[in-house]
Specification:
The protein is of the alpha+beta class. 25% of the residues lie in helices and 37% in strands.
């Protein structure tokens, strides 16, 4: 079985950004995504109350060029104004055509 090298982009963000982020990554070329609830502590501290909403973990497997576009868009629009982090990992997947 042949494996295809792609990028896993993970975005941890404020939950109210979910629809907007999904729209953005799809517009930039992502074919799909997975969203799960996220909790933790970072430079902006612990989210201590539910009125602030929950965080989400948005993951998408994309080509290197799409990963770069997503990170550039996050840096351009989100990093300065919202509690958003993102990172990229190299992954190898089966059925690589599903992601590009």
């Amino acid at each position: 079985m042949a494996l295809v090298s792609l990028k896993l982009v993970t975005i941890i963000a404020e939950g109210f950004l979910e629809e907007r982020l999904v729209r953005e990554i799809k517009k930039l070329g992502a074919k799909g995504y997975t969203i799960t609830p996220a909790r933790g502590e970072g430079s902006r501290g612990v989210r201590a109350s539910e009125w602030e909403g929950n965080n989400i973990r948005l993951e998408t497997i994309v080509s290197p060029s799409v990963a770069e576009k997503i990170l550039n868009r996050l840096a351009e629009v989100y990093f300065a104004n919202y509690a958003v982090i993102a990172f990229v990992e190299n992954v190898e997947v089966v059925r690589g055509d599903k992601y590009t």
